[in-house]
């Protein structure tokens, strides 16, 4: 609180009215002497409050915060291969430092935003306001330093880039020695890369075993090996840059191939170091190519390189695992290929089904039922093969499907039993052929009647006489009684009942009806062996003597029982009417019992007026 009083006096002396935000700006622009004078007002020893201790620490940091920016000196003229090599290593180091400064600046800026947000939430009397303002000033001054340092290093980078381009004709390269040195570095790089891979495997094993101290030690070791690997990659990139420069000097197109390798290596280095090296180094290659190979050639090759780079990035993202199923690592590319394989399998199955239907449509050796069975079985078999092929593309082994089968069995117990039952019932119907495509069937439970138009794995389609397609689960045909009107042939006996009045000659009735049927010339009446038209007397009812016409029919007329019955009823009615045989209707006799009950007499008004009066009587 004492320090706040001193600050208030300083501000009052300057005759400036400052808010919390104004005080921040004042501290940011303050000199070291201001912070030293404020530090002297805080007791050096004794019991300091938490705010005073923090303010003292921050003031010391602000006083010692004196970054010295020295302009980096350019190397001497690059007229030898060794100077050219060292200059490029210096260029890489400068690029890496710029990337690190940018990362630090971003983190510093985030801290500033967090601190200023807290400051704006406080009032001017808050006890920790000054410490937050001092902290904000410290990070703001860091921000200024990072910005200036980045500008300085970028200026040096531009100068060094010009030196590479201008001094290239002066350098005498030894390409053979450069290639030998490059091969040596590549051998070392492979060893480091293999070592990192092995260490990561060991680390994963220790993580599974729960060995925490050993895991931390391995992590530190991996970090050190990775640093050494990055240094080797710097040397490899440098040797490739020398070969690249040599080919540019000789105006050889091979420079583009070397540049392609350098681009790939820069992407790997950026990934390992988490620094953006690619976008900072590649422009140097393009400038040198433009200078020594021309803009047109460079632009053409650069477009190719960018396209290849973009394709590599897309390919890398598509092959990056997103989920794992057992030992299979599933990437977006695998998922796309799996979907493609399965869709192609479905399309192929559909093509097969259509082709089979067309090939067998006009062949007498294939019935409609056989054709549909061959088409459906082949269709589902192709889809099943496509499913297994898709799983193989996805990387899931068929042996691992035991887990899926176990889950499926649980699912069946919780609600898939009907689906499995219908599936098995469909297979039974296809192979047993008790119901075939084209059969006319009737379900006894519901009375549904119609033609079977399709039999699939789960359901059967029935088309009724009203031309309505009804989907019936296959298990209905297995679990309930089904009447198949056309299982073996299209012959059916119809029974047409009718009656005549009592007193009619029964033999005459039979003769008349049989003659009428014979003379009807209906082409669908069937006669064969015992299957002949008959008229029989079925009983003596309350009002009539009952008969039935038993007639066998063949053909499509059996599919329309109401129309067929109507046709023969009209024939019977006409025959009986022409022969004077009466068709009775129900008769009832009414019997009235005698009861001694007074019967009221209703007298009309006229009778009432005509009646004699009392005087007349």
Overall mean pLDDT stands at 78
The share of residues in extended strands comes to 5-15%
Tally of extended strands? 10
**Helix coverage percent:** 55-70%
Distance between the termini: 142 Å
The side-by-side strand order for the widest beta sheet comes to 6-5-4-3-7
CA-based shape: elongated
Poorly predicted ranges? 1-23
Largest sheet: 5 strands, antiparallel
- The secondary structure category is alpha+beta
Tally of separate helices: 18
What's the SSE pattern? Answer: HHHHHHHHHHHEEHHHEEEEHEEHEEHH
The rounded Rg comes to 52 Å
Report what the structure shows:
63% of the residues lie in helices and 9% in strands. It is α+β, with helices and mostly antiparallel strands and 617 residues long. Among the domains are: 61-317, no CATH class; 491-578, Alpha-Beta Plaits (2-Layer Sandwich). It has a 5-stranded antiparallel sheet. Helix 4 runs parallel beside helix 6 (129-167) and helix 8 (212-249) packs antiparallel against helix 9. It is elongated. The chain starts with a helix and ends in a 7-residue tail after the last helix.
């Amino acid at each position: 609180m004492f320090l706040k009083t001193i600050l208030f006096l300083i501000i009052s002396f300057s005759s400036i009215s400052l808010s919390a935000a104004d005080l921040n700006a004042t501290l940011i622009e303050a000199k070291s002497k201001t912070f030293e004078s404020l530090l002297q007002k805080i007791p050096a020893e004794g019991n300091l409050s938490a705010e005073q201790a923090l303010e003292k620490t921050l003031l010391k940091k602000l006083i010692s915060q004196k970054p010295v920016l020295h302009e980096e000196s350019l190397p001497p003229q690059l007229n030898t291969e060794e100077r050219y090599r060292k200059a490029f290593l210096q260029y890489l180091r400068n690029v890496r430092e710029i990337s690190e400064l940018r990362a630090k600046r971003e983190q510093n800026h985030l801290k500033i935003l967090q601190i200023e947000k807290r400051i704006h939430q406080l009032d001017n009397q808050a006890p920790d306001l000054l410490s937050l303002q001092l902290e904000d000033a410290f990070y703001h001054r860091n921000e200024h330093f990072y910005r200036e340092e980045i500008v300085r290093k970028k200026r040096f980078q531009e100068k060094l880039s010009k030196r590479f381009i201008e001094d290239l004709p002066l350098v005498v390269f030894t390409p053979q020695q450069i290639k030998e040195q490059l091969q040596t570095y590549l051998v070392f790089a492979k060893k480091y890369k293999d070592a990192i891979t092995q260490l990561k495997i060991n680390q994963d094993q220790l993580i599974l075993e729960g060995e925490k101290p050993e895991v931390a030690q391995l992590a530190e070791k991996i970090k050190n090996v990775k640093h050494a690997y990055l240094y080797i990659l710097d040397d490899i990139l440098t040797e490739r840059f020398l070969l690249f420069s040599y080919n540019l000097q000789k105006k050889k197109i091979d420079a583009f191939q070397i540049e392609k390798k350098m681009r790939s290596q820069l992407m790997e280095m950026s990934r390992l170091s988490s620094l953006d090296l690619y976008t900072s180094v590649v422009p140097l290659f393009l400038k040198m190519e433009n200078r020594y190979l021309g803009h047109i050639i460079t632009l053409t090759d650069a477009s190719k390189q960018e396209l290849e780079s973009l394709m590599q990035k897309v390919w890398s993202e598509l092959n990056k695992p997103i989920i794992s199923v057992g030992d299979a690592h599933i990437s977006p590319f695998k998922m796309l290929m799996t979907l493609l394989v399965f869709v192609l399998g479905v399309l192929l199955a559909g093509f097969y089904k259509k082709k089979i239907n067309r090939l067998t449509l006009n062949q007498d050796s294939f019935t409609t039922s056989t054709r549909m069975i061959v088409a459906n079985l082949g269709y589902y078999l192709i889809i099943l093969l496509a499913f297994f092929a898709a799983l193989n593309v996805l990387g899931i082994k068929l042996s691992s499907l035991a887990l899926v089968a176990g889950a499926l069995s649980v699912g069946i117990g919780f609600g898939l039993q009907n689906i499995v039952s219908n599936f098995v019932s469909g297979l039974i119907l296809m192979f047993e052929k008790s119901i075939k495509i084209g059969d006319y069937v009737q379900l006894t439970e519901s009375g549904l009647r119609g033609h079977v138009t399709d039999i699939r794995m789960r359901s059967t389609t029935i088309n009724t006489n009203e031309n309505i397609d009804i989907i019936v689960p296959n298990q209905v045909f297995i679990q309930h009684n089904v009447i198949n009107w056309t299982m073996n042939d299209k012959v059916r006996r119809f029974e047409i009942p009718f009656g005549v009045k009592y007193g009619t000659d029964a033999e005459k009735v039979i003769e008349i009806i049989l003659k009428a049927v014979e003379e009807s010339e209906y082409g669908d009446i069937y006669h064969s062996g015992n299957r002949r038209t008959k008229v029989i007397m079925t009983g003596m009812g309350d009002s009539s003597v009952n008969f039935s016409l038993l007639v066998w029919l063949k053909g499509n007329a059996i599919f329309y029982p109401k129309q067929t019955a109507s046709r023969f009823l009209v024939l019977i009615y006409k025959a009986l009417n022409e022969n004077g045989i009466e068709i009775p209707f129900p008769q009832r006799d009414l019997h009235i019992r005698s009861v001694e009950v007074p019967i009221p007499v209703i007298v009309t008004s006229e009778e009432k007026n005509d009646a004699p009066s009392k005087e007349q009587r």
